[in-house]
Amino acid sequence: MFRRTLVAAAAAGALVAGSGLAQAQIRIATAGPMTGQYAAFGAQMRAGAEQAVADINAAGGVLGQQLVLEIGDDACDPRQAVSVANSLASRRVQFVAGHFCSGSSIPASKVYAEEGVLQISPASTNPRFTDEGGWNTFRVCGRDDQQGLIAGQFIAKSFPGQRVAILHDNSAYGKGLADEVKKNMNASGLQETMYQAYVAGERDYSALVSRLKQANIQVVYFGGYHTEAGLIVRQMREQAVNAVAIGADALVTNEYWQITGGAGEGTLMTFASDPRNRPTAAEVVAKFRAKNIDPEGYVLYTYAAIQIWADAVRKTGATNPQRVAATLKSGGPWQSVLGPITFDGKGDVTVPDYVFYVWRNGTYREM
Amino acid sequence: MDYALQQLVNGLTLGMIYGLIALGYTMVYGIIGMINFAHGDVFMIGAFVSLISFLLLGAGGITAVPIALVLVLAIAMCFTALYGFAVERIAYRPLRGSFRLAPLISAIGMSIFLQNFVQVSQGARVKPLEPVVRGGFVLHQEASFSVSISIMQIIIILTTLVVLAVFTLVVSRTPLGRAMRACEQDQRMAKLLGIDVDRTISLTFVLGAALAAVAGMMYLLYYGVIDFFIGFVAGVKAFTAAVLGGIGSLPGAVLGGLLIGLIETFWSAYFSVQYKDVAAFSILVLTLVFMPSGLLGRNDVEKV
C-alpha cells in the first residue's frame, strides 16, 4: 500500500516537473514537403517559419515564453501527413503553420481537430480544407474557387473562340482547381476542347503533348504542380506546340524556370499580388535578403501565419487552441507582413486578391 | 496517320529507354538468377554523375558537344562500375550460398540505401540540365500537323540497338561470355573446370552498372530533369519490361521495353492518359498467363 502511494507520488511529481518544463516554452510547428518532388516549397515554408520564430523570440516571445519550432515532413503524401500530424500532436505542439499541399492539409486537419491543435495553412487553396474543416482550420492564402474564377474568366475573355485544353494531375489541389476553371470558363461562354488527367511523377509526357498538337490546342491550363507543368511545357516547345501555358499558385518557384529553361517564357499564372512589394513586408524582406534568401512564393505566407497566431495568443492571454481560434475569427483585422488580414467564420481570409503573373527571362512579375 | 506516326516516334524512344535499363536487369539475372533491385538506383547515380560531369566540363571550358558526350559517358561508366562492383561485394557475395530470398532482401535494402544516400548528399530538389543536343528533323509536313524526330531521339534509339548488339556479341562470342554462360548453368561445375566464378560475377555486375550509366546519361539528356527518385519509377517499368520480354534474354529486354513504351504511348494517344499504366500491366498479366517465361524467355527446367 505504502509502496503504491510512493509510486503514485513519484509519478505525480514527474508530471508536475514535466509540465513545469513545458511552461517555459511553447511548441509550434511548420509542416510541408521538406523532401520529395515539391521540396522547393517546403524550403520556402521552413525559411519563413524560422525567421518568424526568431523575430518573435527576439522580441520577448509570446506571453513571456519562448517559441520552439518543430519541422514536419509530409512529402505531400496524404498518408505521411496523417502520421506527421499524429507525431506533432503527441509532442504537444499548440499550433501548426501548414501543410502545403491541399491533399495533405485536409486529412491532417482532422487529426489536429481531435488532438486540439490549431492549424493555419499558408498555401492550401482547395475549398474543402475550410469547408469541411472543424474549429481549427484557417488559411492566409485564397481559395481555388476564387483563383479558378479569376483564371476561368480571364481565359474566356482573353482567348475567345480559341481551343483550350484543361489538364490536371488528379490531386485534391490540381483537380479541384481545374474543375473550378472549367466551370467558370464555361459560364463565361467558352467550352474547352480537351479535359484530361495526367500521371504525376513521370518524366515522359510526349504522348500527351502530341495529343495537344493533334487537337491544335492554343491555350493549356495546368491544374497541378510545377514539376509536371514544367516538363509538359518543355516537351510542348520541343514538339513545336506554341500554345499559351497558364498555371496557378503552384508554379511560384524559381524551380519552374530551372525545369523549363527558355521554354517557360510567357507562362502565365495566378497568385496573390506580390507580398514582397507590400510596405508591411519591407522590414522582413530586408532581413531575408541580408541572409541571401529570396522571400519568394510562400515564405512570407508562412511568416504571416505564425505572426498572426502569436498576436492572437497575446490577445487571448492563453495558448489554449480553441480559445485562440475563437479570437482569430472575432478579433481581426490582424496586422501581418501580408497587410491586415480578417478571417471569416470558416477561417478563410475575407479579401483575397488574385492577379496574373507572367514568366519572363527567369523571373515572374505581375501583368 | 501523321498523328499515329508521331506517337510511334514517341513510343519508340520511350520504349528504347525502358529497354536500355532493362538490359541491366536481364544481364545479372541471366548469370546468377537474382533480381538486382539496386539496378534502378545505380542508373539514377549514373544520371547524377553525368550531370555533375557536364557541369564540370562546362566550367572547364570543354563545350564541343561530341567530345563532352564521350568524356561524360566515360566518367559516368567508371563511377557506376565502381558502384556496381561495391554493391555486389557488400550486399550479394556474402549471401550467395544462403537461401534464395536473402539476396533479394539485401538488394531492396541496397536500393533504399542508395536512394537516401543521393537524397542526403545531393538534396531532394530536382536538378535541371540545359539542353545539350539540340535540333531535329521534320519527317512529314502537313498543313496543321508536322511529324518530327529530334536528334536526341535518334541517338537514344541507335544507342540501345548498338548496346544490345555489343552485349549479345560479348555473351555469345568472347571467353568472358562463355564463362558467364557456364556460371549460369552450374556454378560448381564451372569452378571445377577452372573458371573464376567470383571474378565472372563481379565483371557481370560491373558491365551491368556501366550499362546503367549509359541509360542514365541518355535519360538526363532527353528529359533534362533528374532527382533522386527517378531510379525507382524507371526501375519498376524496366523490370517489368525485362519480365515481359523473358528475363535473362538480352533481345527480350529491348523487345519488352519497346512493347511497354508503345502500349503506354498509344493508349495515351487514343484513350485516357491517366490509365496508360493499367493498359501496360494488363498486357503483362495476359502475356505471363499464356507464356510464363516471357516472350523470348527459355523454359527453365526446375532443378531439384
Written account of the structure:
The complex is a heterodimer of chains A (367) and B (304). Helix content of chain A is 46%, strand content 17%. Chain A contains 13 helices and 12 strands. A 7-stranded mixed β-sheet of chain A has the order 7-6-8-9-10-11-12. Chain A has a 5-stranded parallel β-sheet with strand order 2-1-3-4-5, sandwiched between helices. In chain A, α4 links the parallel β3 and β4 (118-121). With 304 residues, chain B is mainly α. Chain B has one domain. In chain B, strands 1-4 form a two-stranded antiparallel ribbon. In chain B, α5 (151-173) packs across α6 (175-185). The mean pLDDT of chain B is 90. The interface between A and B is large, with 35 and 39 residues.
Strand-helix topology:
The complex is a heterodimer of chains A (367) and B (304).
Chain A (H helix, E strand, L loop, with lengths): L1 H22 L1 E8 L6 H20 L7 E8 L4 H13 L4 E4 L3 H14 L2 E4 L6 H4 L5 E3 L4 H15 L5 E5 L3 H16 L6 E4 L8 H9 L4 E5 L2 H13 L5 E4 L6 H7 L7 E5 L9 H9 L8 H18 L4 H10 L23 E7 L2 E4 L1
Parallel strand pairs in A: 1-2, 1-3, 3-4, 4-5, 6-7, 6-8, 8-9, 9-10
Antiparallel strand pairs in A: 10-11, 11-12
Helix pairs in contact in A: 2-12, 3-4, 6-7, 9-10, 12-13
Chain B lengths: L1 H31 L6 H22 L4 H28 L8 H22 L4 E2 L7 E6 L4 E5 H23 L1 H11 L1 H6 L4 H27 L1 E2 L3 H16 L4 H21 L5 H15 L14
Antiparallel strand pairs in B: 1-4, 2-3
